[in-house]
Design goal:
Largest sheet: none
Helix content: over 70%
Radius of gyration: 14 Å
């Protein structure tokens, strides 16, 4: 499958997540499958767009779980997994990925699952500040 097809798939998953039909686990499976296929060099931009979409899957799913703290807490772990995936493939988060993750953190904060300090840890982990 071509890289553009993977990006379209990731964006479709993000739409499905906003309807409650996809979740962080689906995003991680898609990323695992993408990186398991041997291919020629994939541009940094394409990889970044793929990760942006994967993070959007998680954020959209979390937004749809307001009022269900247990399920939202489980989805929270996928924010960490997407970031770990990025790190293992040496893809640096961009501002879009960061903003998407921070948006999910905001929803989680309103549910009482994360605190301001954990949001600051996200900022540090994404190496946007020292």
């Amino acid at each position: 499958m071509k890289v553009g097809t993977w990006i379209s798939l990731a964006q479709f998953l993000a739409e499905l997540a906003s309807e409650g039909k996809a979740c962080g686990e689906d995003a991680i499976k898609m990323l695992d499958e993408f990186y398991s296929v041997k291919r020629t060099r994939v541009s940094v931009r394409s990889q970044t767009v793929l990760y942006n979409s994967a993070m959007l899957v998680v954020a959209n799913r979390i937004r749809g779980l307001e009022g269900n703290e247990t399920a939202a807490s489980l989805e929270f772990t996928y924010i960490q997994k997407v970031m770990e995936h990025m790190q293992s493939n040496e893809v640096k988060p961009d501002v879009v990925t960061f903003n998407t993750a921070l948006s999910a953190y905001s929803t989680l904060s309103q549910l009482g699952i994360v605190t301001f300090n954990s949001s600051m840890e996200l900022v540090k982990r994404m190496k946007l500040i020292e």
